[in-house]
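check this:
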Amino acid sequence: MRIKMTRKGESLRLTAETVGVVLGLIAGGIASILLGGLVIHWILGATGLGGLTYGQVVGLLAIWEIIKPRTDTK
């Protein structure tokens, strides 16, 4: 016996997929910023230029991700 998906069930599935994609993008962005901050902080410390804390580096990287210029592919 096969159960047919109703419109309500299909709508719920699409909503769940959309929420999953959005949460995945947010988690990926946060992980990228934290990992990038760790690498930058390590490089600055290794070269002797590191007067910034890890939190400051992550904050600056997060601000850059928000305001960085977007390239147009025309």
The chain has two helices and no strands. The chain has one domain: 8-67.
